[in-house]
């Protein structure tokens, strides 16, 4: 038997004319007792296919029953047709039906809860497929960027004996009768790992028991974290800029059709990757008050303030450095030129807020112990972390980038849930 060469819908559209063999799922269907129109969907695109009854007399009963999401293979001739959804149409000569789908439980007007419960099916939508492709490009781009820049990928466990970021956002699990926690960050491990490999990164899930239901928080998110010896805050900011510039460039290169389908303004996105600004926390507070927000020095920005701040400084991505030490974690270094403030940054994206959090770390053991005491933190079982300061401490810096936040920003998504295939939130643990 002759081997059939199946091509993708997108390849068929590129081919423009001649014979094609395609396979996929019924995206839409309509027809009469003489003719049936199927819009066929595969991972690449959709295309209209026409079946005339006279060619399929023996198969017509079956064809008539084809419903949305039925799986088929078709063979026919492609031609241009301006009225068809993607400008081309296949006149079908042969069809093989794999399965006639049951009534598809996703229609036009389903609410968010239903789409959540049927997430495994909702992923088949053109929108979610586009996002999945962009996500894949972005993750690969991050790996490529760090490897090109001499970083070694080193993993850390998800079960931990104590927490790194602390606070109320820890998930406690039972670990053979003992308490353990799901990791909030790779950082404590990383600050030790760099004494071996100097430059390390990892992309892995972090877990946060975020009870607040916001449009930018997940309870499980993918965290791209980086730690490097011998680099300071300025080097780290440069690394962050280069990283974002690179991944945005890659996404534009690989996924222009997907970005277009999501309504992303590509020329603006292209410009964004170079529209960085840099200010100090104190300047942010001043500007916010000037613009009518009521916020005092020493307070953390609210979501609205973070979103707006970037625009006030006429850029798309804004590094805010030198937060007051009182609102920073104990591990961030102190800027000796601006005492009482950190060698840290938050990178805020216009319209969204924080997407990256990083700092030059406190490298001095005595100082870090003082900070811990002041914050009344007992590292306890995590005292091993401080070995990074006991045995050959070096200047070092690192950051954590929220993968879903970056996708949400690039794609202009209303809710962070859209940027991950199976989101986890306080309300979503199924499917
Ligand atoms: O700001 P965070 O909590 O910083 C850390 O965990 C540091 N230990 C990182 C480091 O220096 N290695 O988290 C880092 C980033 C945030 O800027 C945000 O983009 C993302 O992770 N993030 C979340 N994304 C989705 N849902 C959540 N609940 C998130 N919490 C943080
Ligand atoms: Mg943060």
Can you tell me about this structure?
The chain has 431 residues and is of the alpha+beta class. The chain has helices at residues 9-15, 60-64, 112-117, 119-122, 126-148, 187-197, 233-261, 266-272, 281-290, 303-312, 365-374, 387-390, 403-411, and strands at residues 18-31, 35-41, 46-52, 71-80, 88-99, 152-153, 159-160, 172-175, 178-182, 199-207, 220-229, 276-280, 317-321, 344-349, 353-360, 396-402. The mean pLDDT is 96. It folds into 2 domains: 9-99, OB fold (Dihydrolipoamide Acetyltransferase, E2P), CATH 2.40.50.140; 117-419, Bira Bifunctional Protein, Domain 2 (BirA Bifunctional Protein, domain 2). The relative contact order is 0.11. Helix 5 (126-148) packs antiparallel against helix 7. It contains 13 helices and 16 strands. The strands form 3 sheets. The chain has an 8-stranded mixed beta sheet with strand order 6-10-11-16-15-14-13-12. 4-amino-1,4-dioxobutan-2-aminium adenosine-5'-monophosphate binds at residues 165, 185, 187, 208, 210, 217-218, 221, 223, 225, 354-358, 398-400, 402, 404-405. Magnesium ion (MG) binds at residues 354, 357.
Write the layout of secondary structure elements.
Elements lengths: L8 H7 L2 E14 L3 E7 L4 E7 L7 H5 L6 E10 L7 E12 L12 H6 L1 H4 L3 H23 L3 E2 L5 E2 L11 E4 L2 E5 L4 H11 L1 E9 L12 E10 L3 H29 L4 H7 L3 E5 H10 L12 H10 L4 E5 L22 E6 L3 E8 L4 H10 L12 H4 L5 E7 H9 L20
Parallel strand pairs: 3-5, 6-10, 12-13
Antiparallel strand pairs: 1-2, 1-4, 2-3, 4-5, 7-9, 8-9, 10-11, 11-16, 13-14, 14-15, 15-16
Helix pairs in contact: 5-7, 5-13
The structure holds 4-amino-1,4-dioxobutan-2-aminium adenosine-5'-monophosphate and magnesium ion.
């Amino acid at each position: 038997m002759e081997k059939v060469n199946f091509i993708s819908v997108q390849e068929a559209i590129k081919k423009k004319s001649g014979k094609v063999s395609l396979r996929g799922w019924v995206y839409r269907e309509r027809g009469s007792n003489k003719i049936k129109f199927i819009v066929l969907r595969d991972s690449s695109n959709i295309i209209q296919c026409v079946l005339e009854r006279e060619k399929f007399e023996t198969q017509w009963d079956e064809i008539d029953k084809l419903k949305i999401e039925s799986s088929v293979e078709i063979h026919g001739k492609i031609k241009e047709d301006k009225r068809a959804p993607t400008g081309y149409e296949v006149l079908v000569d042969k069809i093989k039906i794999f399965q006639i789908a049951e009534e598809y439980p996703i229609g036009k007007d389903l609410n968010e809860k239903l789409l959540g419960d049927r997430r495994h099916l909702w992923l088949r939508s053109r929108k979610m497929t586009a996002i999945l492709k962009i996500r894949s490009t972005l993750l690969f781009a991050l790996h490529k960027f760090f490897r090109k820049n001499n970083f070694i990928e080193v993993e850390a466990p998800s079960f931990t004996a104590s927490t790194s970021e602390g606070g109320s956002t820890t998930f406690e699990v039972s670990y053979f009768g003992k308490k353990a926690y799901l990791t909030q960050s790779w950082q404590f491990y990383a600050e030790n790992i760099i004494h071996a490999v100097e430059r390390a990164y990892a992309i892995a899930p972090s877990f946060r028991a975020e009870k607040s239901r916001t449009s930018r928080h997940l309870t499980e998110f993918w965290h791209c974290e980086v730690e490097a010896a011998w680099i300071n805050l300025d080097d780290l900011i440069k690394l962050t800029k280069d990283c974002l510039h690179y991944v945005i460039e890659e996404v534009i290169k690989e996924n222009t059709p997907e970005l277009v389908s999501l309504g992303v303004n590509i020329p603006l996105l292209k410009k964004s990757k170079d529209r960085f600004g840099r200010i100090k926390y104190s300047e942010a507070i001043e500007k916010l008050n000037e613009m009518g927000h009521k916020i005092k020095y020493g307070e953390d920005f609210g979501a609205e303030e973070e979103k707006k701040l970037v625009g006030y400084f006429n850029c798309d991505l804004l590094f805010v450095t030198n937060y007051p030490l009182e609102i920073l974690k104990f591990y961030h270094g102190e800027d000796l030129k601006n005492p009482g403030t950190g060698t840290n940054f938050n990178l805020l994206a216009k319209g969204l807020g924080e997407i990256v959090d990083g700092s030059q770390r406190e490298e001095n053991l005595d100082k870090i112990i003082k900070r811990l005491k002041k914050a009344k933190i007992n590292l306890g079982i995590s005292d091993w972390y401080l070995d990074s300061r006991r045995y050959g401490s070096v200047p070092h810096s690192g950051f954590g980038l929220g993968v879903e936040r970056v996708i949400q920003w690039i794609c202009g998504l209303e809710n962070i849930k859209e940027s991950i295939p199976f989101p986890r939130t306080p309300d979503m643990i199924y499917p």
